Amino acid sequence: xxxxxxxxxxxxxxxxxxxxxxxxxxxxxxxxxxxxxxxxxxxxxxxxxxxxxxxxxxxxxxxxxxxxxxxxxxxxxxxxxxxxxxxxxxxxxxxxxxxxxxxxxxxxxxxxxxxxxxxxxxxxxxxxxxxxxxxxxxxxxxxxxxxxxxxxxxxxxxxxxxxxxxxxxxxxxxxxxxxxxxxxxxxxxxxxxxxxxxxxxxxxxxxxxxxxxxxxxxxxxxxxxxxxxxxxxxxxxxxxxxxxxxxxxxxxxxxxxxxxxxxxxxxxxxxxxxxxxxxxxxxxxxxxxxxxxxxxxxxxxxxxxxxxxxxxxxxxxxxxxxxxxxxxxxxxxxxxxxxxxxxxxxxxxxxxxxxxxxxxxxxxxxxxxxxxxxxxxxxxx
Length: 381
Ligand SMILES: C[S@@+](CC[C@H](N)C(=O)[O-])C[C@H]1O[C@@H](n2cnc3c(N)ncnc32)[C@H](O)[C@@H]1O
Ligand SMILES: [Zn+2]
Prior knowledge:
- This protein has helices spanning 3-6, 29-46, 60-67, 84-94, 107-116, 133-136, 156-159, 164-171, 181-199, 283-295, 299-311, 321-328, 335-344, 365-380; strands spanning 9-12, 15-18, 50-53, 73-77, 100-103, 121-126, 143-153, 203-211, 216-223, 233-238, 245-248, 270-276, 319-320, 349-351, 358-361.
- It is of the alpha/beta class.
- The chain has two domains: 3-234 and 277-311, 3-Layer(aba) Sandwich (Rossmann fold), CATH 3.40.50.150; 318-381, N2,N2-dimethylguanosine tRNA methyltransferase, C-terminal domain (Phenylalanyl-tRNA Synthetase, Chain B, domain 1, 2-Layer Sandwich), CATH 3.30.56.
- The strands form four sheets. The protein has a seven-stranded mixed β-sheet with strand order 5-4-3-6-7-9-8, with helices on both faces.
- Bound molecules: S-adenosylmethionine (SAM) and zinc ion.
- Residues 239, 241-242, 244, 258, 260-261, 267 line the site of zinc ion.
- Residues 22-24, 28, 32, 55-57, 60-61, 77-80, 106-107, 127, 129 line the site of S-adenosylmethionine.
């Protein structure tokens, strides 16, 4: 039996690799594809791309950054010593020896070494397990000013608001549960990164946020130019009684009362934060990524990016259709019909990649319920 018959080879993009005992999920490919698009755009814009893949596993990302985004240099790091041989074999098959290095250190050691040696990277990819908190500020030390940082959180229990004490420990924010919990994950990560960068006298600009049903990823650009965006770093209030959402700056925390409630029955909002309240994605950067996806003939990625474009700057929450049915005490409305009626009434509205059964809009829950009633009247009439 030959070597290639004995080893089950995987293929993703242009990379071919063995997985062995490494953690590798085909379902996570979209998160990798988006990073590849961003890396390729960065390389076109800056003429150079040096990547630090801090938790590489079997090396799939390092291979793809080299082969598809045409990275000039890739540093593949993986702390698990049992994966070193696999990594050596995988990278040797796909990349030229002068374009990469492999190390087996703790990611934080790598970040500090980069800082100490003034060896900063254009793209730092941190594909960790858990909250991402242990690497959130340290990864910034290895990122070039103007460079990109791609951070992960898999702790959806905490980001969804089901462990607020833990959320305070890892994100410095009190996260509460509400129906738009999936979006909250990305916003907590961005908010924390923004605050940590500011503590170092720097700033971050969010480029895109992605949630695949299990894992949050945020891509940000590290800058020293952006001012502190205090107006977009605040709180999100939710009324469990009527489904109303409201953003709150720090100064209004004492007045977190639902405006839809009757004056004699004040309804306190459940408040999460502080978190990022500004645009989820940078439209200009997404447009460049979409062009790249078109060039590579990646239709699924193009569709996702188009959806991200429409949801980018809508309010920092979404309304789920079942919740609308519950608060309106009616059947769950059909999404497309509801969106049409809301648009006809002058509201902005979009689907959202965070939740298929939801919409993002600048209408209130009460407006949505009124629109849903029009939809049901139309379908009966
Ligand atoms: C989610 S897996 C990586 C998957 C891979 N990036 C991919 O896309 O298939 C996380 C990897 O990080 C490694 N790891 C965990 N903690 C680490 C640390 N502190 N420093 C470096 N590697 C670490 C684990 O051994 C594991 O292989
Ligand atoms: Zn209310």
